[in-house]
Amino acid sequence: MKKHLILIFCLSAFFLPSFTQNLVLEAYIAEGLQSNQGLKQQQLEYSHDLMALREAKGLFFPEVSLNARYTVAAGGRVIEFPVGDLLNPVYSTLNMLTASQNFPQIENEAFSFYRPTEHETKLSLVQPIISTDLIYNVKIKKDMAEISRIDVERYKRELVLEITRAYYNCQKAWYLMHVTDTTRTLVDENVRVSESLFANDKVTKDVVYRSQADQALVEAEYAKAKNLAETSRAYFNFLLNRELTTEVILVTETPQPPLLSLDEAQETAVQQRPELLQMKQYQQMNQQVTKLYRGKNVPALYGIVDYGFQGEEYSFTGDDDFVLASVVLKWDLFKGMTNHAKVQQSVIEGKKIEEAMNQAEAQIRLDVINSYYGALAGYESFLAARKQQKAAAAAYHLISRKFAAGQSPLLELIDARTSYTQASSSVIIAENDYFIRMAELEHARGSIDNNAFKN
């Protein structure tokens, strides 16, 4: 019996926090930030928006295109040119004056509007000179890219929190399984002692039955604990995109009470939470959209230059080339007041964003309050659980010696063992729940530094 008491006391000491920093968890977080599939999708979205920004900037550069056309035509309009009617009277008069036939009569001409064959090959250059659409389009795309970048950071922060939760839940489940496993050893010993006492006529048969029933109950609890440990490990590995059965290294830490004040935590959250930063970016983008619609009243100016060759046959000589240079002004003077309506819609959207920001700030402050007091309560629960465990361990130690000597009933021993097991489990639960609450507090105040976990 004493051997098994030493075993459970050593196991309990192992469950008590060590004074080492949990570098293992930090390594797991870094691995998760590198391999998580959901994060990779968010990063692809950000890359997509960066390419959209590059596309918008590219619209400021001249557009150069090569256009080649060869046409074969038949039919169509016929243009009549009365050259005979115009010149024949003059020629007749000249023949009379000169007493000759030097000026013959000519026929009227007729020719098709479309030439039978024609080609045009040219280079066209279009250069925006003044265009408010292009200017504000770049600014909007830039804001959208920044919003996507913040989305990536938000996902990273959520992933850090989720990995941390999963780690401590995994640690909690596996330690609870080991406590139950150790309890199995104790109840097995109780069955052996009960049978020995019954054999020596010191107890009745019901004591043996009761110890065997307690043994079966602990076996069922162990099966549940093992199932929880396996599923929690699988979920943790899923977050890291690893094989679901990969072993997880568990390292305990020293619970420390929150040292920062509530006001400090709230102010930090208001300054650093990515949700507010993202909404400010939305607000800035909305301002650019409003300016974009208002800029529709400003005319757009483009420069266009064409250089190429024309003719009925393909020929690229100095007699066939041409150059056209144009300045094109486009000014939308009236479009049924639709642009004014768009401006007003954008202004209203800006007011909605402002109201949402105020609500988000209040929600963030509430999150910090809940997380802060949750962490304080978690630390107090841990201290209370540890005191309860020490008392339950001492009680179980005394009663187990009395039972071995036949001086204490089995029910008292079972009750002491149950209290000790529950107290040990409470320490594990309270300790790991406290670390989860501290992670939630750090997340609520926006102080998780993703760069700290980069390899």
What can you see in these coordinates?
There is one protein chain. α5 (132-199) packs antiparallel against α8 (274-294), α5 (132-199) runs antiparallel to α10 and α8 runs antiparallel to α9 (338-404). The chain has helices at 2-15, 23-35, 37-58, 83-98, 132-199, 205-239, 262-272, 274-294, 338-404, 410-444, and strands at 63-72, 78-81, 109-112, 117-130, 300-311, 321-330. The radius of gyration is 43 Å and the shape is elongated. The protein is built from 10 helices and 6 strands; from the N terminus they run αααββαββααααββαα. The longest helix is centred in the middle third of the chain and has 68 residues, at 132-199. With 455 residues, the chain is an alpha+beta fold. It folds into 2 domains: 2-66 and 130-299 and 334-453, Outer membrane efflux proteins (OEP), CATH 1.20.1600; 76-113, no CATH class. The two termini are 49 Å apart. The strands form 2 sheets. It has a 4-stranded antiparallel beta sheet with strand order 1-4-5-6, with no helix packed on it. Strands 2-3 form a two-stranded antiparallel ribbon.
Short précis:
The chain is an alpha+beta fold and 455 residues long. The chain is built from 10 helices and 6 strands, in the order H-H-H-E-E-H-E-E-H-H-H-H-E-E-H-H.
Structural class: alpha+beta
CATH architecture of the largest domain: Up-down Bundle
Tertiary shape: elongated
The largest sheet is:
4 strands, antiparallel
Task: Bin the helical content.
Answer: 55-70%
What is the CATH fold-level name of the largest domain? Outer membrane efflux proteins (OEP)
CATH superfamily of the largest domain: Outer membrane efflux proteins (OEP)
Count of distinct structural domains: 2
**What is the CA-CA span between the terminal residues?**
49 Å
Top CATH class of the largest domain? Mainly Alpha
As laid out across the biggest beta sheet, the strand order is 1-4-5-6
Give me the strand/helix succession: HHHEEHEEHHHHEEHH
- Unreliable residue runs: 1-20
Mean pLDDT: 83
Computed Rg: 43 Å
Q: How many beta strands in the DSSP annotation? A: 6
